[in-house]
Specification:
Shape: globular
Number of strands: 19
Oligomer: single chain
Distance between the termini: 65 Å
Largest sheet: 7 strands, parallel
Radius of gyration: 26 Å
CATH superfamily of the largest domain: P-loop containing nucleotide triphosphate hydrolases
CATH topology of the largest domain: Rossmann fold
Structural class: alpha/beta
Number of domains: 4
CATH class of the largest domain: Alpha Beta
Strand order of the largest sheet: 13-14-12-15-16-11-19
DNA sequence: GTTTCGGTTCTTTTT
DNA sequence: GAACCGAAAC
């Protein structure tokens, strides 16, 4: 295959080029914000291909879907279709890909279901209820799941973590373990894996099956890992195994931007890489083309106090422009007014709204601004919402039917589907499930007949729709056409249901139309369901493109802004209690260090201008006024790094 | 005995 | 928005 020659010297700076053309063996690239990390990885892929490596023997692991898409797209632009055989995607995707092939090796059927967080929450609740652990003080499913999840991603026991977590409460850690064991058992019965199971079982494939380890070690000659600071213990273990001692493992990351420890990310993976691989080559990328020196000065200063890190200072190359602004405001309303006014002013100076973003610590911090923007309609805007497209109730209702076809053992899908019918709730659904023997293959006539008998009369209408789809399932090859299943289900039942149930049914029906369009890129029902479970939102990067094209101001959490950049950045609620958030400060010193890294991420999104908004008071839940102090992250900074001002209405 | 309804409360971050 | 809880309705 012809590969276009790439002039690495012309297209990369010296630091990048050194990393791109690093010799075989373990390589660690420490890439500070805005120094061309993605570019370096993409060119590394191109370099490897140009060196004659078969793309199908290169594995490129990312942390988010967005990063995976972006990198594969850019690699394709660089080397053309030569990269088409490349293995690229998130850890979860790769684990899923291997597990679909070798599910039997870890005791699963290949048609296993992937449980999203909504499913796991329901399942844990079910387990707690069955164990009669319904006391008010017993932890809620989310809390239990965070313990289970941390145990999985840090390779610790639930018993130990539960004992620690509930040490000063009346919760018996033994009960937590009991729920955990019930939960594990239920997942086996359902033939279902949660996100952690994908990683754990992916690891088991390699630790328990030497033949598989050999096979994939041989296949993946080069392994590249993006955002390495965000890997958890299981992921790094998996990568270490796959690469093998002295393998060609290149990891890229920035310990300053590790902001996912709450889900088990362990930035010690990156810190200790040189110890684990003593012959590793280490490269630093510190030349920043993104931001003006004033912003980088602030970024360097705000992170310097954190302990335990690869100390590095970002080097600016751009000309000076202006210092970041620290704007003091009366309250949230004033903050909203300031941001709207300033955005308009900047637009009159030549910036587009699409060049600007408002960042915040938590979604609810955007509420006042959102209302103000909607009210006076002067500035068009979009919000990267906390609502995950695929986890909204209407999406999950409709896909429950698909899931049950794909995996007849999926009790959660069965339950969800049945509860849609009138006069039919959880108890009846459970009885039906038991009557069917814990399995519901709708394609079997006998199953459908048996189930129909147990349904109340009011449920007939909806049931008939399902019955007809099921009868046609094999004949019309609906297996290959999830959109057609959804379409029939909606036409026969769900459209009316949605109109009766949701006040915003129009929007939800549009979502479902969008879902049907989305399914067309998948050849089979199984492929669609797998992807859907591993995807949080419909199309994040298309979303970002929309912002530029339609010239709208974006509102986003800092986490969701990671890896992106804007000319103008407003950070709001830079006050004690809001940012750093109260919860994380209470946790530990480490929690505070992570908040500081989050602040660093926010600051380094800005290219030209940065505003830190500091409202001085906020209305509490009871209506009383709380006074707020500026964030310690601002107070830590030398005062000459920012321009302080006060905005009054 | 179940299901439905209405009011109340709380919002971190994601695969 | 959606999970939760208690009370009313089937």
């Amino acid at each position: 295959m012809a590969v276009p020659r790439i002039d690495f010297t012309a297209e990369l700076n010296a630091e990048q080029q050194a990393a791109v053309q690093a010799p075989d063996g373990p390589v660690l690239v420490i890439a500070a914000a805005g120094t061309g990390k993605t570019r370096t990885l993409v060119y590394r892929v191109a370099y490897l291909v140009e060196q004659g490596n078969d793309p199908s023997r290169i594995l490129l692991l990312t942390f988010t879907n967005r990063a995976a898409h972006e990198m594969l797209e850019r690699a394709r632009q660089l080397v053309g279709d030569g990269v088409s055989g490349l293995w690229g995607g998130t850890f979860h995707h790769m684990a899923n890909r291997l597990l679909r092939r070798h599910a039997g090796a870890v005791g699963y059927q290949p048609d296993y279901t992937i449980l999203d967080s909504d499913d796991t929450r329901r399942l844990v609740r079910l387990c707690s209820q069955e164990l009669k652990l319904t006391d008010k003080h017993f932890p809620k499913p989310d809390v239990l799941l965070s313990v289970f999840g941390l145990a999985a991603s840090t390779e610790q026991s639930v018993a130990a973590l539960a004992a620690d977590r509930f040490e000063h409460s009346r919760v018996d850690p033994g009960d937590v373990v009991a729920v955990y064991e019930a939960y594990e058992k239920r997942k086996q019965q359902l033939n279902a894996m949660d996100f952690d199971d994908l990683l754990l079982n992916g690891l088991r494939l390699l630790t328990e099956h030497d033949a598989l380890l050999e096979r994939y070690r041989e296949q993946f000659v080069h392994i590249l890992v993006d955002e390495y600071q965000d890997t958890n213990t299981v992921q790094s273990h998996w990568v270490d195994l796959l690469a093998g001692p002295g393998g060609n493992l290149l990891v890229v990351g920035d310990d300053f931007q590790s902001i996912y420890s709450w889900r088990g990310a362990n930035y010690r993976n990156i810190i200790t890489f040189p110890e684990r691989y003593p012959d590793a080559h280490v490269y630093y990328l510190v030349t920043n083309y993104r931001s003006v020196p004033e912003i980088l000065g602030m970024a360097n200063a705000c992170i310097a106090g954190n302990p335990l890190q690869f100390q590095k200072t970002i080097q600016p190359v751009r000309d000076p422009l202006e210092r970041p602004h620290c704007v003091s405001l009366d309250d949230g309303h004033a903050q909203a007014e300031f941001i709207i006014g300033e955005a308009q002013r900047l637009r009159s100076e030549g910036y587009a709204y699409g060049d600007m973003v408002v960042l915040y610590r938590a979604h609810y911090h955007a509420m006042e601004l959102q209302l103000a923007l909607a009210r006076d309609q002067r500035v068009p805007f979009v919000i990267t919402s906390g609502i995950r497209f695929f986890e909204q109730s209407h999406i999950k209702d409709v896909t429950a039917l698909l899931r049950l076809f794909a995996n007849p053992g999926d009790e959660l899908a069965f339950q969800r589907l049945l509860c849609l019918w009138p006069r039919l709730g959880a108890k009846t659904a459970q009885k039906c499930w038991q009557a069917l023997g814990g399995r519901c293959d709708l394609r079997k006539d006998a199953t459908r007949e048996r189930l129909a008998k147990g349904l109340p009369a009011a449920a007939r209408e909806g049931w008939n729709t399902v019955e007809m789809i099921a009868a046609d399932f094999d004949r019309h090859e609906l297996q290959k056409d999830p959109a057609e299943i959804i379409h029939r289900f909606m036409a026969g039942f769900y459209e009316d249901f949605a109109r009766e149930t949701f006040e915003n049914s129009d929007r939800r029906l549009e979502d479902l139309a969008e879902l049907m369009r989305y399914t067309h890129q998948f050849a089979t029902l199984d492929a669609f369901l797998s992807e859907m479970a591993l995807q949080t939102n419909l199309d994040a990067e298309a979303d970002a493109a929309v912002q530029r094209e339609t010239d709208v101001l974006r509102l986003s959490t800092i986490h969701q802004a990671k890896g992106l950049e804007w000319k103008v950045v407003f950070i709001c609620w830079v006050t004690e209690g809001m940012f750093p958030s109260l919860r994380s400060v209470n946790e530990s010193e480490e929690g505070l260090a992570e908040e500081r890294r989050l602040f660093y991420v926010a600051v380094t999104r800005a290219k030209d201008a940065l505003y830190c908004c500091v409202p001085r008071q906020r209305r509490g839940r009871d209506g009383s006024m709380q006074f707020l102090l500026p964030s310690q992250f601002l107070q830590e900074l030398p005062s000459d790094l920012m321009t302080a001002s006060r905005f009054r209405r």
